[in-house]
What we know:
The protein is mainly alpha-helical.
Amino acid sequence: MKRLAVLLSLAVPTISACAAKDASLEIQANRDRFDACTMAEMTKPEYAPIIGKYIFREPPTLQQKSNDAKPTEEERVALSRWVSAKSSCRLHMRAAVKPLAEQDPRYLQVLENLFADNDAVAMALYDGRVSYKQALQRIDDLSRGFDNSLTALDHQNMQEAQRIEAQRQSSLATWLAITAPAPRQEFTCFQYGNMTKCR
């Protein structure tokens, strides 16, 4: 998700450079708010049972990613609260994507799909259908899928922008050819008696 701060200049080339820079700064500011909100939530004692199991202040270690346990009742309560609390933090991420979504709504759809899929993983963990290890693996897969989806959208938008620019250049060239003054023609004239003949 950290890529969102730099996507604007790549994914939305149709807006001015100043607007792109301003939007990029706003994206990063909202991304920072999302991170701050998430970190603030993590410090609350009610999430202690799942710290280092499902939520992490640092990237999880290999040992943490290998946890085959399923949540206890206490961890299920913490997990439920965590999923509810993330909703308010997600508002910042939605705001971060808004400048991109204004140009291409698919960016917001990709983000919403990620949120829904992450919530489904949390529900599966809560219900005991998956272990912490399986949940973390699925979240990693979702993150890679999210990045791949953004890359595909970037590529499609760049191709579309290039197509539009080529079409604009072609239209401009056609317009210039139509509206350009006719080339000046030079004539050579000969006079034969009372007649003048020009070629």
